[in-house]
Amino acid sequence: MAYVIDNNCISCGACVSECPVDAISSGDEIYVIDPDKCISCGACAAICPVEAISE
């Protein structure tokens, strides 16, 4: 199951560089994760300062 970013995202960008498969990109208001690319490694969730990323 792919990870998702919720509305608590503060668009800091910390998660982008942590993703080993480049599944995270800037959306209209918050960052988004491409579910087709996400490998559910959890690296993004571990680095998120506001815990806005979950599986």
Put the structure in a nutshell.
With 55 residues, this protein is of the alpha+beta class. It is 18% helix and 18% strand. The protein has a single domain (4-54), classed as Alpha-Beta Plaits (2-Layer Sandwich).
Description:
With 55 residues, the protein is an alpha+beta fold. It has one domain (4-54): Alpha-Beta Plaits. It contains two helices and four strands. The strands form two sheets. A two-stranded antiparallel sheet has the order 1-4.
Oligomer status: single chain
| SSE succession | EHEEHE
The number of domains: 1
CATH architecture: 2-Layer Sandwich
Largest sheet: 2 strands, antiparallel
As for the CATH topology, it is Alpha-Beta Plaits
What's the layout of helices and strands?
Blueprint: E1 4-5, H1 14-18, E2 24-26, E3 31-33, H2 43-47, E4 53-54
Antiparallel strand pairs: 1-4, 2-3
Considering the chains and any ligands shown, give keywords for the structure.
55 residues; alpha+beta; Alpha-Beta Plaits; two-stranded antiparallel ribbon
